[in-house]
Write a structure and sequence with these properties.
Distance between the termini: 27 Å
CATH architecture: Alpha-Beta Complex
Order of helices and strands: EEEEEHE
Structural class: mainly beta
CATH superfamily: Inorganic pyrophosphatase
CATH topology: Inorganic Pyrophosphatase
Number of strands: 6
Oligomer: single chain
Helix content: 10-25%
Strand content: 35-45%
Mean pLDDT: 91
Length: 118
């Protein structure tokens, strides 16, 4: 089995993301609504054996796919996968990202790592 992709492998790079949970859709198990497009990077697998997940923050419309720049990632300390944070190049502070992603990340111990921290 291939080694699991880690968030740091993606920082500063552009990737295609496919969205299986577009903006406004509901989580299949917990029912919350996604305030951002949420999907995965095809062909890159995380620690859970699934393709690595990604938040895309630069659209106010539901999307099927897009290319975005990885400006950071959520490193979950109590889970086995990182979550990528992609934009159209726009940057956010850790505090801004904590607020934006709290709808889902509040349930996990985590640290947000930004590209410029590497």
């Amino acid at each position: 089995m291939k080694e699991a992709a880690k968030g740091e492998d993606f920082l500063g790079k552009t990737f295609r993301v496919e969205f299986d949970r577009p903006l406004g859709s509901s989580h299949p198990n917990y029912g919350w609504k996604y305030p951002f497009n949420y999907g995965f990077v095809p062909g890159h697998f995380a620690g859970d054996g699934e393709e690595i997940d990604a938040y895309y923050l630069s659209s106010d419309k539901p999307l099927k796919q897009i290319e975005g720049v990885c400006v950071g990632y959520v490193h979950r300390l109590d889970d086995n996968e990182d979550k990528l944070i992609l934009t159209d190049g726009e940057r956010y502070s850790v505090e801004e990202l904590e607020e934006k992603l709290s709808f889902q990340e509040k349930w996990y111990k985590h640290k947000i790592i930004l590209e410029d921290e590497q």
